Amino acid sequence: MDVWWHVGPDAPGRGRGRALLRHAVAARCHREAGTLRLAPDHRGRPSLLPGQGLPPLRLTAAHCGPVTVAGVVRGTDLAVGIDVEFLSRPPSPALLLQALGPAERAGLEARPAPDRHAAFLALWTAKEAVAKALGWPLLRALVDVEIALRPRPAVVRLGRDRAPRGWHLVPLRLPGLPHTVTLALCHPHPDPERETPWTSPAGPHSSPGGPVASDWPSPGPSTTTAPRSSSPAATGHTDTRPSPGSTPATT
Predict the structure, then answer these.
(1) Which among 101, 107, 184, 215 is most buried, taking Cβ atoms within 10 Å?
(2) In this model, does residue 14 exceed pLDDT 80?
C-alpha cells in the first residue's frame, strides 16, 4: 500500500486528488504522470482507464484545506478508502447527533473531555474512508457505518450487518500537521451489488432542526507550511502494510 500526501495552495479538490494519484501511480509503475488517464468508476471511485498497460490498482484520495492524501494498492480484490479532516473547533451537538450513532456518542462521552475532539475526527474519517472504499455516499456512511475506537479502530456494523469481516482501519499521522487521517482497507472486496440494506428505509436520521453548513467538518487555519514544487507529491510517501493487529502507522 502506497500512501502519499501533499501540502500546497487550497484549490479544487478533485483536480488535486487526481494529480496526486497520477503521481503515485507513476512512481509505482515507472510511468510519466502526465500520460495516465483516470476516471470515476460506476460507483464514483477514482480508477484508471483500461488500455494503458498498467497492473490492476485500487485508488483513493481525499483533501481538506491545503492537505491532499492519496492511496494506491495493487489488486482488484481489495477495497480501499482514505479520508483527511481538520475541524478547528469542537463538534456542535447537532453535528454529533447527525454524524454518530448512539453507541458512538456514548463512547465519545466516556472519554476525557480533552480527548473528545480528536476521537470525533477519528470516527468521522473512519466512516468516510469506509464509504469511499465501498462507493457509498457520505450521508449513508453516517447512518450505516458504525465504528468502535477501542481497543483499536474497527468497523463493527455495516447497515444491518453487525459482524462485518475483513476490514482494517489504520490511523495515519502526517508530520507537523494537525489533520486526522484514516485509511480503510477490506479484503476480500465486498460485492457492491450485494451490499446489506440500509438500516432505515427512510435513509439518514436527522436532528430536530437539521444540520447546518457550519456544523460540518471544514478546513480550519493551519500554521504548517511545506515547500512547494512542481511535483504534486513532493512532500512525502510511505508504505503501509496493515494487519488485524496493526498499530497506528506514523508516516
Answers:
(1) 184
(2) no
- Where on the phi/psi map is residue 176: left (φ > 0), alpha (ψ -120 to 50), or beta? left
CA atoms in the 13 A half-sphere facing the CB of 226 = 22
The confidence score (pLDDT) of residue 197 equals 62
Q: Residue 134 — left, alpha, or beta (φ > 0 → left; ψ -120 to 50 → alpha)?
A: alpha
DSSP string, 88-122: SSPPPHHHHHHH--HHHHHHHHTS-HHHHHHHHHH
Which residue type, as a one-letter code, is found at position 61? A
Distances (CA, A) of 22 to 45, 177, 236: 14, 23, 15
**Side-chain half-sphere of 103: how many Cα atoms within 13 Å?**
13
* Per-residue cell: 219: 478546513
Q: Residue 63 has which C-alpha cell?
A: 483533501
Task: Give the mean model confidence (pLDDT) for residues 157-184.
Answer: 94
Residue 192: strand, helix, or coil: helix
pLDDT in the model for residue 199: 63
pLDDT tens by residue, 36-91: 999 999 999 999 999 999 999 999 999 999 999 999 999 888 899 999 999 989 99
